[in-house]
Write a structure and sequence with these properties.
about 325 residues; mainly alpha; 2 domains; 14 helices; globular; disordered N terminus
């Protein structure tokens, strides 16, 4: 007979895995903040290894969300517990939106990881009653569709939460439905497939007294408050460091970005008298240049055919977005 945990008991392996994901995320955010404040020359938003690291962290979080949903609600949906957690997620997501809008109004988080977890959790509930292979098929289908459709219209903030964009909308963090809802469903399906197996017996009974592992599991148990407070604490520490030692590197965005916007705006208004359309076009162009690492191409005295193709594609996209 498969051993079942006592009512209210937690799966320590799940807390441990969630804690490891949180710690990895903190490492990534420290690296991002060091770059943003001028203490590092490594742009983690474009460096291939860091981009892969960030995708792995997000994938692990969403797989664990799916696993947690399957464990909590597979037999019967515990509505009271679900709505309590859902309300906390929505409140935390709105707090992130407000905080990032205050700090980065041009790149605020409108559908980040907390927004996504709240929406994905609600959308996954009716699918939990399906057999695990069927849930897995739906999850893989979501991934497949996300690779099959691509249209610049989805690069706006209004539609960016859906996915399907060739280039991300202007934001510092976005976790769209396609493909990431599929990852949640895959996590739920894999958990359902493992339940009832000898591996599940070992996972359900896993307990460790090792102090470091237990500490990481505690972080995983309180992952939401840790997520909310870690960035303000890191930023506060860096502000304190700036009072003692100024960063060796210039901030990566402001001066170059401002000069670009001024030049772009002047050129645009010379051919298009619509100031609002020019503002939208230049904001889009700046976002594309930054996210795709095209500063060297923009500043180059002469461009190769491939570089010119990239600039032309950027101009077409932003012209469409500015209408």
């Amino acid at each position: 007979m498969i051993a079942k945990p006592a009512p209210g008991a937690r799966y320590q392996w799940l807390d441990l895995m969630r804690g490891l994901a949180i710690l990895a995320m903190i490492v990534f955010h420290i690296a991002w903040d060091l770059y943003y404040f001028g203490y590092s020359s490594v742009d983690v938003t474009v460096a291939p290894g860091w981009v892969l690291f960030q995708k792995a962290i997000l994938s692990s979080f969403l797989l664990l969300v799916g696993a947690g949903l399957m464990l909590a609600h597979r037999g019967a949906i515990r509505w009271r517990a679900f709505w309590r957690r859902f309300a906390l997620l929505v409140a935390a997501a709105l707090l992130v939106t407000a905080g990032t809008y205050w700090m980065f109004p041009d790149y605020f988080v409108f559908f980040g990881v907390l927004h996504a977890i709240a929406v994905f959790s609600l959308a996954a509930l009716p699918l939990l009653r399906l057999p695990p292979p069927a849930i897995l098929a739906v999850g893989l289908g979501v991934l497949a569709v996300s690779f099959a459709i691509s249209d610049p219209v989805f690069s706006s903030r209004e539609l960016g939460w859906i996915g399907f964009w060739p280039v991300s909308p202007p934001t510092s963090d976005v976790v769209p439905v396609f493909p990431w809802f599929g990852v949640v469903l895959i996590g739920a399906a894999l958990t359902g497939l493992v339940r009832g197996t000898p591996l599940w017996v070992r996972l359900a009974g896993f307990r460790t007294g090792q102090p470091v592992a237990r500490g990481i599991a505690v972080i995983g148990r309180w992952s939401l408050p840790v997520y909310l407070v870690h960035q303000p604490l890191i930023i506060a520490a860096l502000y304190g460091l700036m009072q003692l030692q100024a960063p060796a590197l210039a901030p990566p965005v402001p001066s170059t970005a401002d000069a670009f916007l001024l030049s772009c705006g002047a050129s645009c208004r010379a051919t298009d008298g619509d100031a609002g359309r020019c503002e939208r076009y230049c904001a889009c162009a700046l976002e594309q240049v930054e996210q795709n690492g095209l500063w060297a191409v923009i500043d180059a005295p002469a461009r190769t055919a491939e570089e010119q193709r990239q600039v032309d594609a950027l101009a077409r996209l932003c012209t469409a977005m500015a209408r």
